[in-house]
Write a structure and sequence with these properties.
alpha+beta, 5 helices, 5 strands, 15% strand, elongated, disordered N terminus
Amino acid sequence: MTLAIAAATPQFTGKITVTQHAIDEAVKDFRVPRQTAEEWIRSNLRKARFITNTISEEGKPSRLFGYQRIAFVLAPEENIVITVYPANPKAFLREKVNALVTRELRKIERHERVLERKIALTKAELEIEKAQLQLRLLRARSAATKLACQARINAINEYFTQLDADLLAVKHEKRAVAKTVVAYL
């Protein structure tokens, strides 16, 4: 529920103050040069999304923002960056997400195999029809029959192109899903 709310919330806006502790953490955890650390934090925070209101280990309230596996902890009322740290998911949650994206990859692979088989069968059947049309074209004396045969042959060739495009689209989708799986390993 919180993730759905975070995705719908607009990105961070407003004037940003950065604490020395946040700068030190950016230098230590993200290897950002100290001279540019404050601006790096501001720049990434502007792209970040609000996640939730939290409390620190000491019980102090704060706001949590996130962007590209960077967590930003801000003061509850002011736009003061208290700290930044790499967002490493808990093992049980990472395993659930990994299982989910892996399941999606298997699903798209199954869809790809089914589509490849269906296309191969369709093409084989149409190749037979195309060969019969070519034979009929060679035997035909009438110009109308020749035009009709050639038109159907052209239609079959266009359909082959469309089938190949459909399969290529599924392969591109599979590649996109596979890249997402890598992000969660």
